[in-house]
Structure formats: C-alpha cells, structure tokens
UniProtKB/TrEMBL annotation:
PANTHER family: PEROXIDASE (PTHR31388:SF247), PEROXIDASE 72-RELATED (PTHR31388)
Leader sequence segment: 1-31
Main subcellular location of this protein, as a coarse class: secreted
List of residues binding Ca(2+) 2: 201
GO terms, molecular function: heme binding; lactoperoxidase activity; metal ion binding
Catalytic activity: 2 a phenolic donor + H2O2 = 2 a phenolic radical donor + 2 H2O
Function: Removal of H(2)O(2), oxidation of toxic reductants, biosynthesis and degradation of lignin, suberization, auxin catabolism, response to environmental stresses such as wounding, pathogen attack and oxidative stress.
Cofactor binding remark: Binds 2 calcium ions per subunit.
InterPro entries the UniProt entry points to: Haem_peroxidase, Haem_peroxidase_sf, Peroxidase_pln, Peroxidases_AS, Peroxidases_heam-ligand_BS, Secretory_peroxidase
Transmembrane helix keyword on record: no
Enzyme active site: 73
UniProt-recorded name of the protein: Peroxidase
Intracellular or extracellular location(s): Secreted
Amino acid sequence: MASLSGISSRTPLALFFFFCCCCCFAATASAQLSSSFYNASCPNALPIIQSAVKAAVAKERRMGASLLRLHFHDCFVQGCDGSVLLDDTSSFTGEKTAGPNNNSLRGFDVVDAIKSKLESACNQVVSCADILAVAARDSVVALGGPSWTVQLGRRDSTTASFSSANSDIPRPDFNLTDLISAFSNKGLATTDMVALSGAHTVGQARCTTFRARIYNDTDIDSSLAASLRSSCPRRLDPHRIRHLLLQEPVEQQGAPALGPAVARRRLHRLASELLRRELGQVLR
Ligand code: HEM
Ligand SMILES: *[C@@H]1O[C@H](CO)[C@@H](O)[C@H](O)[C@H]1NC(C)=O
Ligand SMILES: *[C@@H]1O[C@H](CO)[C@@H](O)[C@H](O)[C@H]1NC(C)=O
Ligand SMILES: *[C@@H]1O[C@H](CO)[C@@H](O)[C@H](O)[C@H]1NC(C)=O
Ligand SMILES: *[C@@H]1O[C@H](CO)[C@@H](O)[C@H](O)[C@H]1NC(C)=O
C-alpha cells in the first residue's frame, strides 16, 4: 500500500483530548455499560487484549493508529456494535468496502487474533464491539498517549450497513460545516469533533485522500502543503514513466555478468515494479 505520512507528528497532546471525548461515545451508547462487565465472566479479558495490542504496536507502530480508527468507523455507523468487522453475506453488503473503508481500514487480522484468544479463554463472552473499544484505548496507551476507563457490555450487531458507512462517516473533502454536522448527527458537539480529530496525531493517509487539498486549497498551512506535495504527485507524469521504463537494472557487486535475455527480463521486472509503485501512489 502506497501510504504516506500525510497526517503525522507525534505530540501526545491531541490524544489527551481524545481521552476526554471518549466518554461522549460511551455516554450516548447506554447507562448500563460497566467497566467491570467482564470481571466475573472473563477476568482475563482486558489483559489478553492489552498484551495483544502491545505486541501488535511493537511490531508495527502504525497498527495503533489503525486500531483506533477501526473503533471510530465502527461507532459512526449505527453505534459501536462491531458491525465494521462483518464480511459481506448473501443478505447484506457490509461496511468493509464502503468508500471510507475500502483499501483503507487496517487491523482486522489483529482483531481476529484477539477474538480467538478470548474465545479460548472464555467462550462467547466478550463482544467484538468491546474488543474494538478496548483495543482503541490500549493502542493509544501503547503509542505513549493517555489512558482512560472503557465502559463495557456492548452487544454485537448481526448486520451491517454499507450505505450508512458511506453516508455517516465524514469524508476528507468535508468543509467545517459538513464536519460539525456529521458529528452533531451522532450527538457529538463541535468541541468533540475538534478534539477527536486529534486522533490524526498518529497514523498515515493515502495520497488520494488529500491530493485535492494540497494542490487547490488556500486554507491549509502552506509549508505542510508543500512538504506533502513532494510525496503526493498531482498526476501521473508521462516523462517520469518513460524515465522509469528506461532505467537500467542495478547489478549486484560481484554478480556474474548477465546475458542479454536475463538482463532484459530483470529490466522489465524492475520497471514494472517501479511503475506499479508510482501508479499506486497516484491512482489510489
Ligand atoms: C473529523 C472527521 C474525520 C475525517 C474527515 C477523517 C478522515 C480520515 C482520512 C481520509 C484518513 C486517511 C485514510 C486513508 O488514506 O486510507 C484518516 C485516517 C485516520 N483517522 Fe480519521 N477522519 C476523521 C476523524 C477521525 C476520528 C474521530 C478518529 C479517531 C478518534 C480518526 C482516526 C484516524 C486514524 C488513527 C487514522 C490513521 C489510520 C492508519 O494509519 O491506519 N479519524 N482519517
Ligand atoms: C473489576 O476488576 C478490576 C481489575 O481487576 C478491579 O480493579 C475492579 O475493582 C473490579 N470491579 C468490581 C466491581 O469487581
Ligand atoms: C473495493 O476495492 C477493490 C479493490 O481495489 C475494488 O475492486 C472494489 O470495486 C472496491 N469496492 C467498492 C464497493 O468500491
Ligand atoms: C460546505 O460544503 C457544502 C457541500 O458539501 C456546501 O453546500 C456548503 O455551502 C459549504 N459551506 C461552506 C461554509 O463552505
Ligand atoms: C483541484 O480542483 C479541481 C476542481 O474542483 C479538480 O478538478 C482538480 O482535480 C483538483 N486538483 C487536484 C490536484 O486534485
């Protein structure tokens, strides 16, 4: 995946605000949730999730960001009910291929691994929606951010909504008015929207999601826009493609001389690899 550090920097400040707002997600959900929900039925639930998240983030830091975003995309579509995890069935098309999610959401394999560990420890007790909520918190902690208490006891949905995922998750081309209303539709205030946006302190974005902003818009920090432009080309440059195709294969030091057929094959492979990378960056 040709992803770029469009949203980067590491200040944990914004994560602090994220913490404050997490309570809002929970508050709109329900009053009978409880942080000790699994104390008797699955006492190791939280340590199991925490150690799996820690390991996943140690292996790849970005995974912390990806798990945090999964919780957000779950919650914005008919509540925090695990529906984002459901694959398509004959009776519904799930949320995984909706615009904001397709080729973008990550971390499903980490969640699956946590779920199977929890099933071994306590069969059919811990909901997937709760796993996402706890994993989001544990991710922020593993990345060096603050902690908070997660209310538990969410129930998993048996259905999902492709169309709500498309309509309810805010889009990258939204203006301020659009953003405020997308959050207001979920019972969240403007201050919640601003604070929760601090989640973008961590993680990455694909060129395709911010290209229009960095070439067209004037309401963006100009040096940030300039630095992003250097890694997110405006469009496919025919000269660049030609250059890629003409590039010579790099020989290993000490490698035996190659016959022309082998050299041509290598050249072809190298060119198509570079081209694929370039195309991926521009077209995604
Ligand atoms: C305010 C409205 C929001 C918009 C328009 C928005 C949009 C986006 C976009 C376009 C990306 C990049 C996706 C890609 O290139 O594949 C992204 C990434 C991300 N978003 Fe948001 N987002 C918003 C709010 C949030 C919230 C509330 C959270 C969590 C609390 C969040 C967490 C993240 C994270 C952590 C990433 C990086 C994921 C990774 O590296 O895998 N976002 N967001
Ligand atoms: C639930 O377990 C946690 C962690 O072991 C403990 O701190 C908390 O006091 C327990 N709560 C109840 C209501 O038993
Ligand atoms: C999701 O992405 C795949 C792979 O890029 C693509 O083939 C498919 O059409 C996309 N699905 C939707 C619903 O856009
Ligand atoms: C925001 O965008 C919407 C369309 O998405 C448009 O109708 C509205 O006029 C815009 N508002 C501002 C203040 O730019
Ligand atoms: C800039 O905006 C125009 C008009 O909205 C759009 O057609 C064009 O693709 C945008 N440029 C980039 C680089 O996205």
